Amino acid sequence: QYKFRDLTIEELKNVSMAYPNFTFSMNTYTFKDGSQKDLLNFSGTVPVKYGNSYNIPIRLWILDSHPFAPPICFLKPTANMGIAVGKHVDARGRIYLPYLQNWSHPKSTLIGLIKEMIAKFEEELPLYSLSSSDAARQSELLSYIAKITEGETDMKSRSKTGGRNEGCSNKITVVGAGDLGIACVLAVAAKDVADKVVLLDLSEGAAKGGTMDLEIFAVPNVEISKDFSASADSKVVVLTVNSLGNAQTYLDVIQGNVDLFREIIPAVSHYSQNAVLLVASHPVEVMTFVSWKLSSFPKSRVIGVGANLDSERFQYMLTNLLKAEVLAKDGWVVGEQGEDKVPSWTSCNVVANQTEAMAARDSREKVANRAMEILKGKGQRSWSVGLSVADLADSILKDKRKVHSVSTLAKGYCNINSEVFLSLPCILGTSGVIEMVRLEEDPLVHEKLQSSAGSIHDLQQQLKL
């Protein structure tokens, strides 16, 4: 089944000569989309000097288009090893290297790849030794990682993690301890939404700034941790992290966020397999799509904060500033966050004749345009987004069946054929999106949504997932 069998065999012979400890086999690998294929793979240890000498266990899967496609690479930690998530390794143990991204036959070879792997691991050791208690706590995760590296994972058949937090019926984890993450924690605590809130601080070094203040003033039912296992059995996981790298372009900024999520999503989705993922990272439409793909959760349980804040403000302005309370209950801001968002309606009052209908529509549009003009002057500060996140979490955890404008999978809506997330009115409950509420037929709104879907899809196509 290997298209270039002779070239592949020649490469594997070279690896065997250079690293005689490697063992070779043919096993079934499961890809992210659930498809499976029997692939050659080899595993063994590579020598790494990091102060002392270490033997780092790895496993490489050889695709059937080798050597014109790079292998899929994983660490293969033993029970007493922990994965040090970093620049080149994610929480599942998958290895990412410039050599893999720039793979090009005949310049790129397996031997060259292993040499770069050793060099990068000598800069940043990918594994660390666990204490006996840590090893016991992480044995379940290591077992899961082993299944992934052996291609045996079936995301749809994962059983619920039990036991550790049965006393917390409503637990929320907020990932990211920047201003937005802390704002979310404080808003959730202020609204008394959850029994327990865990703030996952993924920054390096000791707690400082806002997280230190949270510890000093001991906000009730709030735990700060750097360990993903602290998030176990959360009902809602809020993603607030954003890359702060030295990106040169907007695409680089988004790719930086994707790289962060590649490390985070597999870990939080493992520990909270029945959670609703609530994405507040930027750009929210793209990062909600990324979270959906990386988690393999059903689309109903992966949502973005979308235009919830804008919609709440829009309805408030219609009611309190423009005295159009009748319109407010059916008015929503939909589409893409930013300049391309658009007002819309979920119902239309029936009037006696066409002339009255046109007059009513014109009047409504004038009021909506005025409200949108006022909205432009309202920024989305961390504390305001935090309040919006608490509002959404409240509807989810308390199964309120309330309608919110949130980022949801829009494929199939108003002739959108691509897998993109857009903000649309949705009924939220404990399982996430229960039902999408249909918008009134409006060609201008549909055109705007289709335009946003096209630009978002084009952007997603340029990302490396």
From TrEMBL:
CDD domains: LDH_1, UEV_TSG101-like. One of its GO terms (molecular function) is L-lactate dehydrogenase (NAD+) activity. Residues 1-131 form the UEV domain. PROSITE patterns: UEV. Interconverts simultaneously and stereospecifically pyruvate and lactate with concomitant interconversion of NADH and NAD(+). This is UEVLD enzyme. PANTHER family: L-2-HYDROXYCARBOXYLATE DEHYDROGENASE (NAD(P)(+)) (PTHR43128), UBIQUITIN-CONJUGATING ENZYME E2 VARIANT 3 (PTHR43128:SF33). GO terms for biological process: lactate metabolic process; protein transport. InterPro entries: L-lactate/malate_DH, Lactate/malate_DH_C, Lactate/malate_DH_N, Lactate_DH/Glyco_Ohase_4_C, NAD(P)-bd_dom_sf, UBQ-conjugating_enzyme/RWD, UEV_N. It catalyses: (S)-lactate + NAD(+) = pyruvate + NADH + H(+).
